[in-house]
Amino acid sequence: MRTRYLVALCTLGLTGGLSGPVFAASDVLTYDGNGDGTITRAEFQALQKDSFKALDTDGNDFVTVAEVQALPASDGRNVTGKRLLARDGNGDGMVSEAEFLSQAPGFDRADRNNDGVLAGNELARVNKFLAKGSF
Ligand SMILES: [Ca+2]
Ligand SMILES: [Ca+2]
Ligand SMILES: [Ca+2]
Q1: Which of 56, 64, 76, 135 is the most exposed place for a label (fewest CB within 10 A)?
Q2: Residues with CB under 5 A from ligand 1 (ion)
Q3: Does the pLDDT of residue 14 top 60, yes or no?
Q4: What is the CATH number of domain 2-132?
């Protein structure tokens, strides 16, 4: 049944991407909790959690393709949710917060020099990514 739902989405040709900002903030330093000008993994996760909440419009702790498609940012766009479903670890057609956080393009990728914090150019790169959105 859920599989059929996914197949239906594909059949409908929902192959576009959502490029509007869907993150909770466009400046990652909004989440610099201790104000030291750098972003730790924990601070980064706070941004991801808020982004998840922003996507979960009905507040049931799962994000669905329908929710992503209903976002103001997806207005007039052909939104596939493909990237969202790539995060659907157990294939039930919904993305839980745990799935979202574990699959989120992450901190490790942003932390280019692997020093455990995001700073300088790393922050600029993250902000560029946030401005683009990712669904
Ligand atoms: Ca910090
Ligand atoms: Ca939801
Ligand atoms: Ca799931």
Answers
A1: 76
A2: 32, 34, 36, 38
A3: no
A4: 1.10.238
